[in-house]
Amino acid sequence: MLDDTQQAWLVQIRRKVFGYACALCPDISGAEDLYQDTILRAMTAPSVPTDFTAYRVWLFRIMRNLWIDRLRAQGRLPEFDTVAEIDDMPSAHADDQVVNALAVRQAFGALSKPHRDILALVDICGFSYAEAAEMLDVPAGTIMSRVSRARAALAARMQEERNVISLPLRRVARKIGDGA
Amino acid sequence: MTAPAPEALLSAFVDGELPPHEAARVAEAIAASPALAQRAARLHQMKAALAGYGADLPLPDMPHLPPRSGRAISALRLGKLVALGSVAALCAVLILGVMPVSAPVSAPVAVLEPAAPALPALALHDDWLAAPPQAVTPDFPAEFGWMQAAARASGLQLVHQRADLGQTHLGFKGPNACRLSLLVSDTGGREQPLRLTLSDSVQYATWQRQGVTFEMVARDMATARFATVAAGLYQGSKDHGADGALHIALLQSARLPCRVGA
Q: Dihedral of the CA atoms B47, B52, B53, B56 (nearest 10)?
């Protein structure tokens, strides 16, 4: 069972935990269910880390394990270790453009599960490469290349869907200046 | 072991995951290449866009053990509870059925560089940190007006200014207790590109433009953030903000915490 400190940690990071669930699941109800399953599993765990860093990794690992269990039960478990060949970041039409946040999130939702998984851990949950490596039980260098490949896939997806809004940088700079 | 691909290095730089010497190398490359700066800016923006994923959705209720009310648990959870007959039974089943999740214990190992050499700029920076804050927030000196947009985009505010013996000391503060000094001196030296010396405890950058020497120093600042700010100011000193839009976008999107580990 969680003590008061661990309960407080849970409250502190629950937004990130839910964000991770949203990133993993294709729909909100699935994310809510995964979130609550994770919290329940944590609350009833016989042994809980007493160090915050370890606790955070432990909690997200519970969620990831539950998610993998579900996929496995549905026969939809992807191969996480496959090194997919992905083109480099597309450079065509990349100049003089600002990435639109909504477009990024839409493209993220269309990524493969392994790509969503690694980007969610690093970009949404804020784990360091070392923490992510510990969670996935792989070397930190593997995390580095997986993150890079996932970002390349994300950029390629955005390019495909033409979801990048052209916004001249000069105008952005002026806007920043005006905001003084 | 194969060397990481350039794209992976850039991606790791954006995440603040490169060791200081490697981060310095990438930052210098970014400062020298608008195309690379564009790619770094895009990566920063993609990262920033994902950071708030799901934040606009209402957070589901936290389940409670024992349940305090029917609303505290979703219908699915409540159904499970009823089916199991009692909260105690649920706990027992979950405890028995829990997967063996091993608790990670080892903390990430920080890569520490040798301590930076004693620098006059660092001494000035430390003197400023130790002194009481100036009562009045200084205005940007006219000759440094080109820095304003870059400082603002970096989340830095000018809070200290002192001119002495041909050297101007500008002190900036940012969120998360971030403090950064920029020393500008008329030295008449030749042109020198951006050079970075980064460790986890001290970050230092220097360059020369048109007879003016710039030195930037901070303590405990995330190296990638420091390097990004240095690259932005270096570029600004080149063109005096005339065409710094790209670097402004880069600075604005680099939202790494100021303090290491913050």
A: -160
